[in-house]
Records
---
Amino acid sequence: MPTIKVGCTVHPQQSTYEQMRETWKNVENLGADSLWTWDHFFPLYGDPEGMHFEGYSLLAAMAEVTQTIPFGMLVTCNSYRNPNLLADMARTVDHISGGRHILGIGSGWFERDYLEYGYDFKTAPDRLRDLDAAMPIIKKRLAKLNPGPVNGQIPIMIGGSGPKVTLRITAQYADLWNGGGTPEEFGAKNLILDEWCQKLDRDPQEIERTLIRNDPDVIDRAEEYVENGVTHFILAAKGPEFDLSLLRQMLEWRDARNASSS
């Protein structure tokens, strides 16, 4: 039986920095396996003009505030930063944290971010092509930087489930994959990722399978998700309340399950 992990993404909206900072510490103190934020410029729900903060600035702060928990962006929008710059930013955050940073990345999707900040929204296929082109540049720059990543490399997570392109990019470059949907939907994409790994001569076991899920029923269907390949659950803490009660329940389930399989 696989070892199960449970993490939490703290949405950087509708709240103050102080509230987020306290929540990061609480997530770590509860014993979560990972901590995340997102890469947007405006709220995704609630008041569209509500408070919101930029993601990579928050990652640098997160690196200082926490002590042991792995953390990252769920996920970076490839369009917002030059790939060489992104690699340098990720490496710098990695050093601030002592080697705990995970570089999460995807092709981007939130049109308002693009339009208001002056980025070319393009089409979904074009954004995927840009991500595909950026990945080897990011890897190459990470290998050139002085100093390099603390542990020699930074784990890369790719978010998205497109079967023809995104999952192929994941099989080629990622250490973690982040998907969503029902257990059955996740399982179907998980099998496609395995197929891409076989085509690219990649060991599927090298890619950790993570699920982002915000629905309370995730704990009731947790075993179904595990049967369909999930080994790392990521729950959401929504501002301004940042209720961590579901995270606590999932951590209790994780501990009991891992203990029974050891």
---
Amino acid sequence: MNNSEQVYDIAIVGGGVVGLATALSLARRGVKRLVVLEAEKKLATHQTGHNSGVIHSGLYYKPGSLKAKLCVEGRRALYEFCEQEGIRHERCGKLVVASSEEQLESLRVLAERGAANGLSGLRVLDSSEIGEYEPHVVGVAGLHVPETGIVDFTSVCDAYADVVRRLGHSIRLGARVVSVSPTASGFALYTKGKTVKGRGVICCCGLQSDRMAHLCGVTPGLKIVPFRGEYYELRASRRKLVKNLIYPVPDPQFPFLGVHFTRMVDGSVEAGPNAVLSFKREGYGRLSFSLRDAASTLTYRGFWRMARKHWLMGTGEMYRSWSKKAFVSALQRMIPELTPDDLFPVESGVRAQALEPDGALVDDFRIVERPGMIHVLNAPSPAATASLSIGKFVADRFEANC
């Protein structure tokens, strides 16, 4: 065997929260030789490392959907894992606020969905009761969700990786997969300087999931279109405006939850994100640009079909990106006493939004199987919360069919 070749039973491509949780699930089952290949020099570099740190309850998702099932299961498993591994976290609860009479029906539907998904302790609030949870919030009604929490998902990923390594498996950083080819016993994955061979391959590649599928000879049937989410942080002197988590009632047409307030485990408070079309899949600045990524989006018919339907929303998000006043105005619907001087900009994130050719936004998790391989093609929020249950789901499918 060539010295540059390494042979494993399973190769997992992607060192974010879903890839590492999948590795953890398989490692705990006694897989003999497992490797995680991460393109960057550290784990959780992209979507996971720019996550707002919310442990989602399972409130928003259609009952019976994969998102709903795996979020609820994953939330419970994540709390347990954090306790076992000593990871700092809080089950602090959140408040969803209806700012107008027109949102009351949507708030009612959210409460019904939460109950259908097995959430306990939900409490619908009238305007006078909101202050019990968030004294500075104003709204016509609210919904308190006690099972929501906060954690640092980079710390979670580090803990996942530590367990995988303790169980005798490998995690390779700076191992970008540039091509994949079938072999007599599985697949060969070519990275710079080394070839990794695996009986099976599991791809959890987030912003690059569709491209990795193509490298593996799989037609994904969708395309990843990146949306940048921008955040502000409350100045330390104004953190008293927010006790825990404060969300608006989301627009049911979109998979985005609207700008909201999130208290982090370190005590800081972030506000955001918006959802702005990005011209670079891993570009975190307003001017970030990749010709390849921009062309991928702008030549995709699904993008233009989506844009024709939702151009007004997109225009508003772009305006809010460049106008701090507009961003703050959206937040003031919940906390009227907030001022632009209370906030300063911090690092953005990029969401991998999967689009169908007909322009439909892929809302549920999308996981596809092919002989010897599994591709996690769409794993947006609440994938971090659901990571342990997604990892178990993928490991189950791999053992059953690969």
